[in-house]
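Hello support,

Our group uses your service weekly, and this is the first time we've seen a run hang past the timeout. The protein is SET domain-containing protein. I'm not sure whether the cause is the sequence or the server load. Input pasted verbatim:
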Amino acid sequence: LCPVLDFLNHTELEKTNAGYRFTDEDFSLEALKPVRDGKEILVCYDKEADYLDMWERYGFFDTAATIHTVEILIPPSSALFSSLGTGPFWIPENHFNVPLTCPLRTALTELAQASLGAQASEGQVDQHALLQMANLIRSHL
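Update from on-call engineer: The timeout came from a worker crash unrelated to the input. Re-ran successfully.
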């Protein structure tokens, strides 16, 4: 199966001209549109993979990916380590109006609320959480 897969090139879902399917015993490749002699067979490796997934799995960045993420680890030297653990936490970036959640931001917001108390405004809590997130991101640069 691997030699066949080496001839399939990735493209964004809308530009595919073929699809493939795996079972435990078999592999099938089907043309979705006419493919002229000498033209590339184009498939979408994973329509739900984000920018980072494609790099980790296949060694390239998919510029057509609609969701980009960053992986953040909490260093043991961070004051947040005892509350959050090491992670990894994923910070999504949304290019379309796909509802996404960011577990790190949620956790930092909960910690900020606990730290600042019930009298803190939503804006103060959000600002404190974002500052903590910015510091974590800066520590990875």
